[in-house]
Amino acid sequence: MAQQRQGSLPSDTTLHRDTGFERSAAAGTLPAVETEQLPPQVSSPAGDAFRRFRKNGAAMLSLSVILILVFMAAFAHFMHTANPLGIEYGNLDSNPSPQHWFGTDGLGRDQYSRLIYGLRVPLIVGILGTAVTTIIGSLIGVMAAYAGGFVDTILSRFTDLIFAFPAFLLALLSVSLFGQALDPYFGGAGRVILLTVVFAAVGWPFLMRFVRSLALSLKEQQFVEAARTSGTSSWRILVRHLLPNMYGLILVQAGFIVVFFVYNEAVLSILGLGVQPPNPDLGVLLFNGSERLGFNPWEVIFPSIFITIIILAFTFLGDGVRDAVDPRGNK
Amino acid sequence: MSQATEEHRAQHTPEADRNGDHLLLVENLRTYFYTRAGVVKAVQGVSFHLDKGETLGIVGESGSGKSVTAMSIMRLIPQPPGRYDGGCVLFRGVPLIDIREQPGRDGRTQRIDRSAPESHMRSIRGGDISMIFQDPMTSLNPLLTVGKQIAETVQEHMHCGRKEAYDRAFEMLDKVGIPSARARLKDYPHQFSGGMRQRVMIAIALSTNPDLLIADEPTTALDVTIQAQILDLMRGLSSEFGSSVILITHDLGVVAGLADRVAVMYAGYIVETGKLDDIFYRAQHPYTHMLLRSIPRLDMDREDRLIPIPGSPPDMLRLPPGCPFAARCPNVREICRQQMPPLDPIGAGHLAACWNPVKEEAA
Amino acid sequence: MVVVVYLIATIVFFLSHASPYDPIKLNLGQHAANKLIYNNYAHLFGLDKSEWEQYKAYMGGLLHGNFGYSEGTDTWGQPVWSLLQNGVPVSLKLGGFALILSLIIGLPIGLISALKQNTIVDHGSQFFVMVAYAIPVFVLIPLAQLLFAVQLRWLPVSGWGAPGLEGYRQMILPVTLFAAGLAGFFAKSFRSFMLEVLSQDYIRTAKAKGLKQRLVLYRHAFKNTLLPLASIVGPTIAFLIVGSFIVETFFGIPGIGLTTVDSVLSSDYPVIEATTLILAVFVVFINMLTDIFYAMVDPRVRL
After folding, report:
1. Cβ contact (<8 Å) for A304 and C284?
2. Interface ipTM above 0.85
């Protein structure tokens, strides 16, 4: 690089005062300049984020825990030790034992097996529900932000309306009104589907607002202006420029939404409003357990532990993603 | 050591200055940052002095350590991860920072810290030494009125009542050229424009009649036209109040209009310092030289080219041994890569740190 | 705001009437097969009119403070308001105490944690916060009940409103547990607010002015930490509402939450509509208060 510059100086250059310095430059006798060595790793923001995430112990642990739980829930068929609905009159309220790892409940059912199956509903509602919520919310949010004007106003007002409504109440209402009707469909999983749909319907405004304000602030930044002036089409700007900047932050919000959904699903079940017994569900297990505190504390303890673990895991995961994506944070 | 160097050293040591000959004496200041990625030696053995009524310009690129030097004088560096690792800062003869290393009895070096207590620093900050910062938008508290932000400084340092403080605030606002100053006292920062906000900052800084005003890139965030106004204001007020000024900037043009003396910094070192004319017309350090070549000057011909400095500033986490400029220096020699040259006098009050300075030839 | 409330009421109404349940059938049980009884009932409660008629009647009634009549199994025919009116103050009391307690605990922890960032104090309190925040209240309650009420017999398992000392003893467990999750949330939030504020330039300026540490904190830092409050009002209210359902159900506290839950379980639509409406109005009201609060604190906001 230095060589080129030296060559391009006109030979009659006279800069203020002649110290021979400029002459060496013009004559090309300056020694070669060492240029900086490029760092060996190619660092993209995504790559950086992954690396940071991997270094975060708590986040990695949480991720593993969640994966294990999902695995257990998905393959509960192969992992249970006894029929989760099987009633064993001879063995009520027993303590943990080699046959019944978590003991049995008031009807003699194996707690461990029930728990494993019970993981399904919260995880489905949580993960699937969040996925749907995120997709819908992001799409609408980005549309509103990018279209601006009238479209934006309508979408925002609509969102605000739903947002103003206490989410939980709406979910509560919907489940109570339609829950029983849907039970016969989908092989008993009707309620779960309903829950997922309802939560998603109730949760997307939150994400929409977040994405919208994020997109708005990004839209104003110069790199968008640069893209537009160079003739990039709107669609391209959206996909190639705006979205990649938002993935990380959206993911962070999604993490917290999962926690919210899992929590609320459990609340609904505990109150007897969600999945109904005898279908196993963590919330239902807790519901049953809390009624029989005096007789069998184990019924409460194990579901409690598992629910707490799920919530903790997703919380740490969310924190971990946030720290990975935005290390300038306050830690 | 040459005789000139010896004399210079003798004149500018902490011991010599206990009499307070210089308003501010910085000797061998070292400020390091201990981060997880490594140690950043932001200020490495910086020495300079400032006398009453003088304006010193500290010039350098981002990362050269100029801001850290200023913050160190005020002892505002956050202590983890920063640390004052050595050197002295004497203000009116009193050591604000005084950290020396001595070989201890057990063979390891002992760190002796005779720096002033924090309470003393607090009375100095804002009272005897004031500082204004680069971005006036964020440097003012959005929730407090402008009058309050001036008056609280006055109340703190001049121990007067509310009314006197606000009167003084009005006086200052007027002096810095804010129209309708009395009414404006009750306004909030967001009701002022950028240039006016910087004027407010100046008002705050000078309201306590400080001996020293440190201005860290005061005009960088402002329009060029406003820049000139602010610089004029600073010049006028500092001479009126009799304050000395340390002006930190990356812009040589800013320095040319205001400074009596200049110090050029690179990668934590002062590489050249001297009177304004010495630096602009008789620069000897290659970096200073190249810096001057890279900016446009009124007395250039139209065909003249600006020559940017090749290469890029060093990674402060991985500084090579020797002179940090060696990688980009056209005058580099073998010794440059091994040992950092000392800051030696090359003229009256003109020092440069170079093994192979640019020598003047007859024009 | 009025528009929102109106819309909410409408939505709730139509939703509940869209349900496939038939409240009359539910309540009459086998008698519903008898057409005469069925029609009489329907006529008595205006349930034989068209949807639109019912809607108008309902809205009209609302404006007069008439929420209609209960359709619950035990409470059929009672004016809804009479069922609710006792619940409102109870819930307010429970929620109010919990909120205050959580602020008293959470705020200082959060702020101190930020000031002593990365010290033992910080890490310790962050751990405590994590525990309080992550363990769901419906987990804490059975466990706490198990420990304190059943095993140790220090506190009553449930109940509310007993006169004198017993009344206070009854309040301890529900209020404390209710406050626990919120306290953790507040601590976490305020810590990050404070840290954000402390890293701002104007704090640097304040320090450079040589102001006393305490002055810097109170006048410059603290006021600014109140600004991000809006971001936590939403989740706080959500927690208060959901939490009240749980706490009231588990402890048998006769508040709005319990009433709502019961009404849902017994398909008592008028009550459901009423409680939902009340809660929704509450949320809107709090949001309005927040806006006013901002206008007062932040000079950049104009009402």
Report:
1. no
2. no
